[in-house]
Design brief:
The protein has 171 residues and is of the alpha/beta class. The chain has six helices and six strands. The mean pLDDT is 88.
Length: 171
């Protein structure tokens, strides 16, 4: 497991932690310059949020949309950003999705599997699959995500789990 700063819009504190703290990973959100500054041994992760945080896999599942088609559209929308930032090694997709049923989890797994394949095939980059919020999904739901795990293994992907900490939270 690697822990590192999550830098929104070029966070000065995140930059300091990444550069002075010699972090093994840094995640850049919407502003990717820091990823170009860190050393070669640092895993760089990118996420685009502007105009994207409204993406809800459950809405696509409920509408009966094909997960592979939605993944193709999603990656195509990111094409210019990924291509312009060659120093980002891995790209996240949906932020903190909340699949509530086995069918929603299966749909999201198929979406993430296709996204991992496309990011690898089209750009030679890794996908960070999942990106679930703290405490999610429920332990019995992971079994429905297997196809995404298989794709992450095949395409050198990563599994993203978000966790939060602050001064008042014991580690």
């Amino acid at each position: 497991m690697k822990l590192g700063p999550h830098c929104n819009d070029g966070s000065a504190a995140g930059k300091r932690l990444a550069l002075e703290g010699e972090s093994g990973v840094v995640k850049c959100v919407d502003s990717f310059g820091l990823a170009a500054e860190v050393g070669p041994g640092v895993l760089t992760i990118g996420r685009v949020t502007r105009d994207w945080d409204s993406f809800d896999p459950n809405t696509h599942h409920a509408a009966g949309n094909d997960p592979a088609r939605v993944a193709r559209e999603y990656v195509e929308r990111m094409r210019a950003t990924i291509a312009a930032h060659s120093y980002i090694a891995a790209w996240e997709g949906a932020n903190e999705p909340h699949p509530r049923t086995p069918d929603e989890m299966r749909w999201y797994a198929a979406f993430e599997a296709e996204r991992a394949k496309l990011v690898w095939d089209n750009f030679g980059r890794r996908a960070v699959i999942g990106n679930f919020s703290t405490g999610e999904p429920e332990p019995d739901s992971w079994q429905y995500f297997q196809v995404a795990f298989d794709a992450a293994i095949q395409y050198d992907g990563l599994v993203g789990l978000h966790a939060y900490w602050g001064k008042t939270v014991p580690v």
